[in-house]
Design a protein that fits this description.
- The chain is α/β, with parallel strands linked by helices.
- The chain has a single domain, classed as Metallo-dependent phosphatases (Purple Acid Phosphatase, chain A, domain 2).
- The strands form two sheets. A five-stranded mixed beta sheet has the order 3-2-1-9-10.
- A hairpin with a 5-residue loop joins strand 7 and strand 8.
- The protein is globular and about 50 Å long.
């Protein structure tokens, strides 16, 4: 079995379209949407496209926050959804489990299998990683949330793969980032026309769109700076 994991789309429809075009040529048996489809300019369109692709969904923190909005941006995002959209998203689970190729049992989640907002980065100490994943009975955990790709083997724990972000990457280079799983793990990047995407996405009316998205989409947010930011949040600094 070959599985494409797409995390953190954040309503970036052009990026998602480009990735799905790549997947169409990748002999994929299943697509897993790993949370945070929502909270972005064209989120309803992204949701519809993933439903059409028969994706399996897990919930991210942004799905939870948009369904119970507490900020101007959350409320804008909530207003873009139909009642049917909200009903669909409300039933997404925290995890999906699949047997994948030569990898064995794989758990897909947004942040960790126990929490949609817990932070694990490539700089998180092994002991903290193992503690967060102590209840996981799987060979591989595929997550997202911190928008930086990683592939890490823990001594005494599962292999931890961060798929990165399709729609709002922090990699220091433009593109849509995702992961293909089969006999092994392939960290993937799909190119698309970012300049055109910025124009299309800006027209949707997402609050403070350019301030929120432009640097990430144009590749000006490095993996190092994003990791440092999330590690500070993890430690409560």
């Amino acid at each position: 079995m070959r599985v494409a994991a797409l995390h953190d789309v954040h309503g970036n429809l052009p990026a998602l379209q480009a990735v799905l075009a790549d997947i169409a040529h990748a002999d994929v048996d299943a697509i897993v949407s790993g949370g945070d489809v929502l909270w972005g300019p064209l989120q309803a369109e992204c949701l519809g496209l993933l439903v059409e692709a028969d994706a399996l969904f897990v919930r991210g923190n942004c799905e939870r926050e948009v369904l119970a909005p507490s900020s101007e941006t959350d409320r804008w995002c909530a207003a873009q959804l139909t009642a049917r959209d909200r009903e669909l998203v409300a039933h997404w689970p925290l995890t999906v489990e699949l047997d994948v190729g030569g990898l064995g049992r794989v758990v897909f989640c947004h942040a960790t299998p126990r929490d949609d907002d817990e932070i694990l980065t490539r700089a998180t100490p092994d002991d903290d990683m193992l503690s967060a994943l102590a209840a996981v009975a799987a060979d591989v955990v595929v997550c997202g949330h911190v928008h930086v790709q990683d592939d890490r083997r823990l001594d005494g724990g599962p292999r931890v793969v961060n798929a990165g972000s399709v729609g709002m990457p922090c990699q220091g280079a433009a593109g849509a980032y995702w992961v293909l799983l089969g006999e092994d793990v392939e960290l993937r990047r799909t190119d698309y026309d970012v300049a055109h995407a910025l124009e299309v996405l800006d027209e949707a009316g997402f609050p403070s769109f350019r301030e929120t998205f432009q640097d990430a989409l144009e590749g000006r947010v490095s993996a190092l700076s994003a990791t440092e930011h999330f590690e500070q949040k993890r430690r409560g600094a």
